């Protein structure tokens, strides 16, 4: 059942609506557990759209296996998505810095507060993100050290290649992840793919993980896969960042999710006016390329790749 979570009046007599689709068993007993699947906090992150579509479709096709409540929020920043903007347009605010919000605050704070009000009481929340338009990420769960002990067993169910215990902006204070965990709603954030695109194979991979998580929580009784064994990295482990040391056009020589050795050529930054290579980028260590530059134009200091693995 589609429900409106919050509505806000806009200029020129328009109204913004944020909606969710609630799926629940036909014969409830009142003790059902509830999971929230959230995406679209950043308007340029579309990877979650495919997952929401497939999740709802598969549940509706096999409703007899649904033993709990699934709330799907496919677009919590509709103005951003409609304008292909990462932030909330006009206000130029990162919505993932607005939580838990304020009922008496401005539009963004009010919307955040209404969303949190709707999430409260859930047994679990999964916050789906894509990367931005500049970088491609392998499917990964991100969580902070504070919640590593309580959330890691659930993160392992999500069928990702990588679990990064790391204080990234996705999990810092004022994020949805941080705010809901503070309110005792266990929440995990997933990053995958690239901005403004849908990578179906990544979406299919995460979708299977969500069914595994729902099975563990007693929300889904249907068959599930055995999740991948994720590589787990904490801040103490080695994640090596490669940055551009020149400006130009980046031409990769490696593939995303590729094993590389120290000394391998990661790519070249070229000068398309003079026809020269301005930086020959060499891997400083062995490992797996789990982040790779997607947008070719780079400047001195731009992130080119992250390598997980050896030294």
Characterise the protein shown here:
One of its GO terms (molecular function) is hydrolase activity, acting on ester bonds. Keywords: Hydrolase, Metal-binding, Zinc. The protein has 311 residues and is α/β, with parallel strands linked by helices. The chain has helices spanning 47-61, 78-82, 107-119, 148-155, 176-182, 200-217; strands spanning 2-9, 15-23, 34-39, 69-73, 124-130, 135-143, 162-165, 187-193, 231-233, 239-243, 248-252, 259-260, 265-271, 276-282, 287-293, 297-298, 303-308. Strands 1, 2, 3, 4, 5, 6, 7, 8, 9, 10, 12, 15 and 17 form a 13-stranded mixed β-sheet that branches. A 4-stranded antiparallel β-sheet has the order 14-13-11-16, with no helix packed on it. Helix 4 links the parallel strand 6 and strand 7. The protein is globular, with a radius of gyration of 20 Å. The chain starts with a strand and ends with a strand. The mean pLDDT is 95.
Short key terms for the protein model shown above:
single chain; 311 residues; alpha/beta; Aminopeptidase; OB fold (Dihydrolipoamide Acetyltransferase, E2P); 2 domains; 13-stranded mixed sheet; four-stranded antiparallel sheet; 6 helices; 21% helix; globular; metal-binding; AstE_AspA_cat; zinc; N-alpha-Ac-DABA_deacetylase; Succinylglutamate desuccinylase/aspartoacylase
